[in-house]
Structure formats: structure tokens, C-alpha cells
Design goal:
Four copies of one chain form a homotetramer. Chain A is α/β, with parallel strands linked by helices and about 260 residues long. Chain A contains nine helices and eleven strands. In chain A, the strands form two sheets. A nine-stranded parallel β-sheet of chain A has the order 9-8-7-6-5-4-3-10-11. Chain A has a two-stranded antiparallel sheet with strand order 1-2. Mean pLDDT of chain A is about 90; it is low at about 250-260. Chains A and B meet through helix 6, helix 8 and helix 9 of A and helix 6, helix 8 and helix 9 of B.
């Protein structure tokens, strides 16, 4: 049994949670439109990046604080708890004021100052697996957070780096039962980053539920072709609803997908 | 749609096929006992190794021709088509005389003399992905076989080698929709070798069906602790029946798991 | 030709630079003793960690500011410029006050807030390659730093993560000529982390010079068995002198390149 | 100390051996012209493929027996022992009649029927490391050969498969001292396949000697642009002489280790 992590009424470990939203919050209108579609699809939480890990100071850096407000307002309007990524420990208080859950991205899984900052609060954390990290290292990072007192931890498998090039990363679905066998953290997957290919998101989402994950996080965009980041892996808003139905239908069965 | 590959009435691409059996045929009694359990479980085909890829001339080398006879007899007795691995092109005629399907193992995915030999016949081939091979290379090996005239090809994802050590290999379930998007070969998975851990076989089998695989191949042993090879990843015969029920129940749903 | 990066008179790109020192500054006496041995060996710079990337709040965390003072004093006493790692952007001003060069570790190669902070200063940066990062991503991180105005960048190859387990990482010596072909940054290697095995440090140091690296960084300890971190890969102080002679003689003398 | 493996007077383990030649023997004139250049460069052995691991039945398959004769004649004419790859155990007697040393390629490192065949003879074997094999597995394959009585074994590191894409493979130079620490087999490297880039062959050849390898194998072609296979990684014949001088001078002279 997983521990339960409650995000304003959405309970990881107690229900199969679908988080959806754009890679980046691009404007008030964009996030409002997408949040509406997310709500209509039956997904339970809204995601959106406002601080982006930039590889160039000239690439899109995220909207920062205004983006946080847009995301918060959209979440409130449609009754969706929100999650957004934190990159810099100096932004913690700002981010924590707006969001319901803080995401730690793959590149920061071992950013210990950032982990300690969150560990010293009670804000729920979505801890992505490093793309080059073993399951054991991933769990160690979770335990590091927890050692400072914060027990509200959800893990997210997002693919590891291998020699295979037909997908952006290799989504390691074995990591779900392995992590569950070694801990009681809820574990979700991110098939969007895990594959990097929109056409692979649906089958890997279904497989994630089948293998025993507690939820999925899906990138969705009202206009993927013009997304400011990661458009190639984003579902269209109209595709999201069908996916949510598919994964919900899958759960009618009582199969013991957990590794005993 | 997959092409259909018919193995004495078991049709890959037309039904979800469960192949089960021991890593090695160890004796006439052993394979008879396991074959009976395989039949009772509802699985459709019987596997068993008689030529083993030896890393030492002192390790168990397989029973060779007597093993082929034991496997053939057990298959006949219980009405299960059989599949066994071929390692040496000089054994082709012997093996082809006994088996319904020839397996090419991970280490031989690019053994072109072996592939050509099978390609020049019509015997169905189960072509495992190399543990270090891309999906593209895997498909190229299949096309190489087909170029000699043999169209009876089924692919098998069996895990790739990565830095992760909690599993023996990393079962790459994304490869199923990727391979299906690029070809019409039926594709099955081998969760036993793909994880190397008996406790992970059930969840990854279910996920394999969910992601759209056409079948699974499962190692099973009446006494895994005393198996001559690969006992740690083998299910007990009594566990197999429950797994077959689980994967069969999963199929009642109509989800479009294939990558379009 | 490399650009020249001058660290208080030690010029990367102009001479073959040996940086040596302990993984962690453990006490004033320890760093003084090791610094003396580093100076006597002929190495040109002193390294020592004072903020450690902790995987547990209970493991050794580094001495922090007192450690910086000990390191600074030892560097001054023996005429060795110093380099130490920065983990948290909030520590930047403190660290920059003491050190001659700031190291960014493998886990932080894409920690953009940290990189931007250093980029907005002129302090020389030693940028380690991420253990899962391509050469292209490594160069992008260097260019990201430079885009804020800081040109004083030295790269450090420290091994990548692969399936091989006989070494802690796989030191990728091809990355030296590749990085030099694509940029003019000086590039050094870290054979201590790159192999994780003290007995492999000498041959890989010599190979690093042979392949065209601009220097090496070596972990050394007066008492490796009792080191607070990474003892297994540290050379003894008495081994360092012989290594410095070997790498210096490489262009004029026959050296025993075999691993002893 | 390595064991000594004597190939018609060229002694692995006793001298630094340079093997050079084309990927494929293409014609009598081609191999004669290249063999002459190889001899003039000071290299000691001639290589050339006559059976190629084909990924398509329509790609160049090697000249087969006529190629063996051309290679043998060129070796005799210029006093160079020859090495060529064996793919199929059924070709063993033919190949062994012509060649001085049999190469087992990366894809066949665990092809046990092939290894056993060579192990039952005394013909020297050049055993390449599998691109996905650990050093331990590589040594196990060598010990497997030796267990049948053949002690004339030379190992060849040829790069492993990693996530890095700027090189075709990652040449693992740490494997040289690791393999030497665990066995007494001579070990050479193949910087041509190990990097896949002609411009990287020289620095990695020099690094190979520096790290303690017993030799190198270099692809060379009189006209790389028109080579029937692997032209991108082949040196021109006129570049080979300079490289041989550089590696021979390594213990007595300053060499330009930078990649041009």
C-alpha cells in the first residue's frame, strides 16, 4: 500500500491521478483555455512551467511570477490543484505561495540545497527521477527530503537515458514495481518526456496504469505546433479526453499489478 | 494491423499468445511435468532450451538432441506447439526437424549466417532484440531474414542493457509501439529475461499486454530453486495460471494501445 | 589552440596543470599537510571540498566557511591557487571571497541558476561534464555561462555512466579532442572520479595528457583508508609526486604506462 | 607482464604492434596498393575483411575466398602477417588455411560455437570486445576459447555503446588496465571503430599506447571517399606513416597529441 499524499483533495495513492497541462505557461489566455480542457477531460490536476531550465539565456525562460498568477487563477477557476517546477532555492517562498505541489525536475534530483529547502516545509513535492539515476538513488533523494520532516512525497518516472534513439528517453516501467517494493511512496509516470513522441503517449499511459503506477503526467497544448517548448511530445487538448477515458476504463479490472 | 504468423494453429497477430516453459529442458520428466502445467494454465505454446549459450565449457550445455525429443514429445502430448533456440547454423536441420518455431537469442540478433539459414527456409522465427540493439537494427535483422524469403517472423523485446542495476535488463516497452509503427511484425515481450526478477514478471506481463504486445514468453519451473539455469527469474508453475487469467482478463477492454 | 585561462599565474591552455587535493577539507591540519605534499609534488593547484553533495543529512556535509578559510590559508602558505565546489547559489558570494576558481560538479552541470550566478561574475569556473551529458550539452552549459559575460571557463571530463561496472564511471577520453574540435575551452580530466579506482588513476592520467588534455585533477589524501569521503579512489601523497614526474616526462622520457 | 602471442614473428606482448588495412578487401589491386603503404609506414600486420557482417543481402558481402587469396598474396609480397574476420563456423577451415590470425568481431564475442571452433585449434585469435559487454564478460569469452586448449589470444577494445552521439562508440581506455589487472592477455585497441571519426584516430591511438595497450588496429584506405564500407573512419594511406612515427616516438619524443 502506498502512503496517501493529499493535494487539496486529490489523493495520490488513493485514486489514479491524471495531471495535465502545457510544458510552459505562455499567457493568461493559453493557460485558461488549456485548464478548461483539462477539467473537461476528467483529469484532476493542472501542470505548467513558469521557470524553465534554459540552455541559452536567449531561449524562452518562462513567465516567472506573472505565470504563477495565471496558473493559480486557472487552477482556482476550474477547481484543479496545480503543480509547477522549482529551479532555484531563492524562488522557493514565491513558488510555495502560489502552488499546491512543487515539482523537482530530472536535472535537479540531486540538487540537495533545493531538496533541503522543500524538506523543511510541508509542501507536497513531485520528485522526478534523474534521467541518469538508479532507482536506489531516486529513493535516496526522496528519503533526503523526508529526513527534514516533509512526508508529502510523490515520485515520477520520466525515462532514463540509453543508447536507443527512436524515443527521447527510455521509460523504465520496471522502476514502478521496484520502487514500490522498496518504499511506500506513490509513483506516477511522465510518458510525454519519457517518450518524447506524442503518438507514444497513449500506449505508455495505459501501460503505466497496468504496471501499477498511481497516476500519469501528460503534456497537452491547444496548439502543439506553435508551443514555445516541447511541442513534439504534447497531446492536443481534444486527444486528452479520450486518453482519460481509456485509463479510467482500464481500472475497472481488479488485477494485482503491484509487485508482491 | 500485424501480419499473422501461424504456428500449428496458434496465431501471432490474431490472439494474445502466452509461451511458457523452462529455461532449459533438464529431463524427460521435468519437461513433461512443466508442459502439463503450461497446458493447464491456458498458455498456448511451450518453450525450452536444449542448446544453451555457455560461458564456460563446464557449465550446463543443454541436452542437445535428446532434449529436442523430450520437448517434442511433451508438446505433442499436451497439444502445445514448441519453440527452442538455435545457436549454430550446423544444427539447423536437426532443430528444424523437431521444433515448430526457432528462437534466435539476443546474442545472435546480428549473427547473419544463422539468420540467412533460417531465412532460406519457411520455419517460423522468434527474433529476440539484441540487448544492445536499437529498434531500427532489430527491424533490419528481421528484414534480413525476410529478404531470403521467410515471412514467418515474430519479434521479441527482452530488455536492453542500461546503467540501472535493480533489474537484470531494462524492458523497453516503448519499443512495442515503435516497432509496430515501423513494421507489421507481431511483437511479444519476455518479462522474465527483461527483468530477471520473478516478482516483476506479473506486472510487466500485464503492462506488455496493455501497451499492445501480441504475446509474452514466460520462464516457468516446477522447482525454481533447483533450476539448472536462470532460477531467479522463473515463476513457479502454480503462479503461471493466475498470470494467464490476469492477462486474459485485461483483454476484455477495447483500448487502442497501438501507436497510430 | 585553447584560450588561456589564468588562475593567479597558473595558465590553463598554456601549461599542463595538475590540480590535487582531498575530496573533503577535514581539518586545518589535514589540508595543511596535504597542501604541503601537493606543492612538493610539483602540482600547481590545490583542490578541496567544503560543501559536499550530501545524499543524507547524516553524512559528512563539509566544513563550510571554516573549511574555506583552512583551504585559503593552505593555498597561501604553499603558493597554490585553490578551487572548490559551489552547490548553492546563495553561497556564491561567500565562496567567491575565498577561492580562486569555482568548481561546478557533475550533478549541477545543468543547474542554470548556479551557472548564471557565476556567469555574471568574472571568477574562473571549472565546469565538470554531467555523468549523463553529451559533449554537446556540456559545451552548451559552458556557452550559457559565457553568455552572461564570463569567459574564464575550463572544462573537466569526469567520466560518464555506462553499463560497465569494473569502473565507477567510464572516462571518455574521446571527449577531449571532440570538445577541442568544437570550441576553444581548455579541457582537463578527473581520472579519480572517472575511474573510482586508485590503481587506475596513473595510467588514465598519462593517457589524458597523451590525448591532448590541458591538465588533470587528482584526489590525494595523506591517509586514504580513513578519508571521510571517496577514499577508494584517492592516491596517497607519496604516490602523487611520482605521477607528476610521469606526466611531465611524457614528452621526453619513457614512462611505465601499465597499470601497476 | 603479458603472455607473448607470436604471429609469424610479430610478437604481441613483446612489441607495440600496429595492424593496418582496409575494412574490406575490394580487389587484388586495392589490397596490394594498401599493403605496400602499410609496409612502408612501419606497421607490422595487414588486416582486411573478406566476409562482412551484412545487414542486408544487397549490401557488399565481401569477396569471400578470392579475397582471402588476394590478402594472403599481399601479405606474402610485403612480409606482413595477416588477420581477417571469421563469421561462420562452417568457413573456419577455409579461413584458417589462408590467414595467420582469426578475428572475432564485436557482434560474435559470445558466439560460442564460433569460439569453440577456434579454441579447438591453435590459430591465434583477435577477440574484440562486444560493444555491449563488460570487461568481465570479455575475459570470460577469452577463457572459454582457452578452455579448449588454444592459448594464442589477443584482446581488442573497440568501443562500447553509450548515450554519447558525437562518436560512433565510446572507446573505453580504462578497460586496458582493468583487463591487464585481471589477466595476462595482450590487449590492443581499435580507434577506428572506437570513434568512427578519422580525425579522432590519431589522438586515441596515442592515448592507447600511453595507457598501456599492446598495439592498435587502424583502418586505412587509399581512397576513403570511395571505400565500399566504413570510409568515414579510415585514414588515408599517407596519414598512416605519420601516425606510426608518432606512436613509436611516444617514449622518446614530444608528439602533437591534439586532434587537428
Amino acid at each position: 500500500m502506498s502512503r496517501l499524499v493529499d493535494i487539496s483533495g486529490v489523493v495520490f495513492g488513493g485514486e489514479f491521478v491524471v495531471i495535465a497541462g502545457p510544458c510552459s505557461v505562455e499567457s493568461e489566455e493559453q493557460i485558461d483555455e488549456i485548464a478548461k480542457a483539462v477539467k473537461l477531460s476528467g483529469a484532476q490536476m493542472l501542470r505548467g512551467g513558469v521557470f524553465k531550465p534554459r540552455t541559452s539565456p536567449y531561449s524562452f525562460q518562462g513567465l516567472g511570477e506573472p505565470g504563477l498568477r495565471f496558473l493559480r487563477n486557472a487552477g482556482n477557476k476550474y477547481g484543479l490543484p496545480i503543480v509547477t517546477e522549482l529551479l532555484d532555492p531563492r524562488d522557493f517562498e514565491l513558488v510555495a505561495r502560489f502552488t499546491d505541489m512543487v515539482q523537482i525536475g530530472s536535472r535537479n534530483m540531486q540538487n540537495h540545497p533545493l531538496l533541503e529547502q522543500i524538506g523543511r516545509s510541508k509542501i507536497p513535492i513531485l520528485l522526478k527521477r534523474g534521467m541518469n539515476s538508479t532507482v536506489e538513488e531516486w529513493l535516496n533523494s526522496a528519503r533526503f527530503v523526508e529526513s527534514f520532516g516533509n512526508e508529502n512525497i510523490v515520485l515520477c518516472e520520466r525515462g532514463i537515458r540509453t543508447f536507443e534513439t527512436s524515443t527521447r528517453n527510455t521509460l523504465d516501467l520496471s522502476s514502478i514495481p521496484v520502487a514500490k517494493g522498496l518504499s511506500d511512496y506513490p509513483v506516477i509516470t511522465d510518458p510525454s518526456h519519457g517518450t518524447g513522441v506524442a503518438g507514444l503517449v497513449a500506449p505508455l499511459s495505459i501501460a503505466s496504469k497496468a504496471v501499477g503506477a498511481d497516476g500519469i503526467m501528460i503534456e497537452v497544448h491547444s496548439n502543439p505546433e506553435n508551443a514555445l517548448s516541447d511541442g513534439a511530445q504534447a497531446l492536443k487538448t481534444e486527444e486528452l479526453g479520450r486518453l482519460v477515458v481509456q485509463v479510467n476504463n482500464l481500472s475497472a479490472y481488479q488485477y494485482p499489478a503491484r509487485c508482491s
